[in-house]
Amino acid sequence: RWLFDRAVCTLYAFCGVLFGLCSLASLTVLSTVCCLKVCYPAYGKCWDAHAAVLLLFVWVYALTFATAPLAEWGSYGPEPYGTACCITWETSSREAKLYILALFIFCYLLPCLLILASYSLILWTVWVSRRAVQQH
């Protein structure tokens, strides 16, 4: 069972969600910038000066979704086995279901699709470049 009080459970879950979302958002931004630098070098150079803005965006993005349960849009609570805390997945309220849906779309599906598209485009560009070099 969870050994601490509700406040520690909420803090534990908040940190897990915040750092998890920040990690996935960072990987998404990194893959997108790499794609721009490899596939579109003219546009890729402009992102060097904007690294701090991108980093700030990642943290604001993660904080937005991590603080939503603190603002009563979704909730944090003990996991089913009670040994840790996370987002309360099994809930019946409409707001909590919308939060979970938004979390799935904007914090899982969209980043994964962007990462997949970025690396696919990088591989395609490398493959086309390799064929062009081999023909010469």
- N-to-C terminal Cα separation, in Å? 67 Å
Overall tally of structural domains: 1
Roughly how many Å is the radius of gyration?
A: 20 Å
Mean pLDDT: 90
CATH class: Mainly Alpha
Produce a short descriptive summary:
It contains four helices and two strands, in the order αααββα. It has helices at about 5-40, 40-45, 50-65, 95-135; strands at about 75-80, 85. It has a two-stranded antiparallel sheet.
Secondary-structure blueprint:
Blueprint: H1 6-39, H2 41-44, H3 51-67, E1 76-78, E2 85-87, H4 94-135
Antiparallel strand pairs: 1-2
Structural summary, described in words:
The protein is mainly α and 136 residues long. It has a single domain (6-135), classed as Rhodopsin 7-helix transmembrane proteins (Rhopdopsin 7-helix transmembrane proteins, Up-down Bundle), CATH 1.20.1070.10. Helix content is 71%, strand content 4%. It has helices spanning 6-39, 41-44, 51-67, 94-135, and strands at 76-78, 85-87. A two-stranded antiparallel ribbon has the order 1-2. Strand 1 and strand 2 form a beta hairpin. The protein starts with 5 loop residues before the first helix and ends with a helix. The mean pLDDT is 90. Its main location: membrane. InterPro entries: GPCR_opsins (IPR050125), GPCR_Rhodpsn (IPR000276), GPCR_Rhodpsn_7TM (IPR017452). Keywords: G-protein coupled receptor, Membrane, Receptor, Transducer, Transmembrane, Transmembrane helix. Residues 1-136 form the G-protein coupled receptors family 1 profile domain.
